Amino acid sequence: MGKKFSKFFGRKESTTKFTFEHLPLVCQLKIFTFLSAKEKAVAAQVCLQWNRLTKSPKLWSDVDFTEFTLCSVAGGEHHCTEQCYKAYQRRVMLYHQFLMDVKPFVRRFSFAFDIGDYRDCWLELMQSFLQASRCADLTTASLNWKQTPMKPVRPDNITWCTNDYNEVIHRHRHRQRLFVKFFDLFTASCPGVEKLVMPFDWSERSIQALCRLQNIRSLVLEKYFVYQTLDQTSLDQLIQALPRLTRLSLEVWTPSGSGLLFYSVTSASLEYLDISKCRGFYLGNVDVPKLKTLKASRHPWNGPLVTADSLRVPCIHHVLGYGATHLEHLNDHKMESDWQKSVSESLNSLLKSICSCSMHRSDWDI
Description:
- This protein is α/β, with parallel strands linked by helices.
- It has eleven helices and twelve strands.
- It has helices at 2-9, 25-32, 37-43, 48-53, 82-102, 122-132, 162-189, 204-210, 232-240, 316-323, 345-354, and strands at 62-64, 108-112, 140-144, 195-200, 218-223, 247-250, 262-266, 272-274, 282-287, 293-295, 329-330, 333-334.
- The strands form two sheets. The chain has a ten-stranded mixed beta sheet with strand order 1-2-3-4-5-6-8-10-11-12, with helices on one face. Strands 7-9 form a two-stranded parallel ribbon.
- Helix 8 (204-210) links the parallel strand 4 and strand 5.
- Helix 5 (82-102) runs parallel beside helix 6, helix 6 packs parallel to helix 7 (162-189) and helix 7 runs parallel beside helix 8 (204-210).
- The model has no long low-confidence stretch (mean pLDDT 86).
């Protein structure tokens, strides 16, 4: 058909091909942004031009160290060994060195390394990356600083003597102190973060560092210490210092040996609150006029040894009715228009599964 039209209009059919090299540089880079880190590494070996393209700082805006697998050997019969982990370390370090040379403009950053493991030097790698990269525009971060999931666990080396237990506690607290310094560097390097996921130690210095991130909109704080002490002042300080916070997920296991702890949540901006993974965290009062979704659950009893008659746990329905008048969803249940005044059968069933008040909890079995 093309030849017929060319002949009719008296033109010769063009034999010129429009190749990738004819595209403007900005278009070439845009195409490369759709490639994963591994795919870009393969593309860098195609030709000199593509190799130069892969070294563009703007091409590495999404830096995810969790993309690396422990072993690149395919097949279900392969069992990973210490050599596999060493090879994994080499791949991560080569990637890290490449990023240090490129000095990328980072917008998303993720890692999962035990920063307390001095043999693997993960802390030094992450610190040098933040210092060398341009992170002013970083908006999303996931910082799993408490463990290296890719590191094989050797059960035969696990013992339960007193010395081993003390060593574990020492490492646990040493890692936490390292995190405080690292997080101070992170908040100074990445002031524009809007979404953050990480284990949190709830230390005073960490709270102060987190409060610097004034653009935070979504915050997920996972537990680090089991039975972490959390006082109301620290919770208030954090929430009130983040005026744009709309989504908050907490995982806190608080000790209640000296009595139950009832918390107050006050926020003018919060629209989503998830406390379903908390233990010992009971809502005593809320003032969240924009809250639309609450995720909650009831875990096995971990409070003081008292009789059920002496417990005075506030009913979550009453608490929400006074302070979260615009609530639309409680877990997966869509709230009825008159949920504050009357309780439907489906809502009552849900309350019996998540509320710890005497009216909705008929037993106190552990």
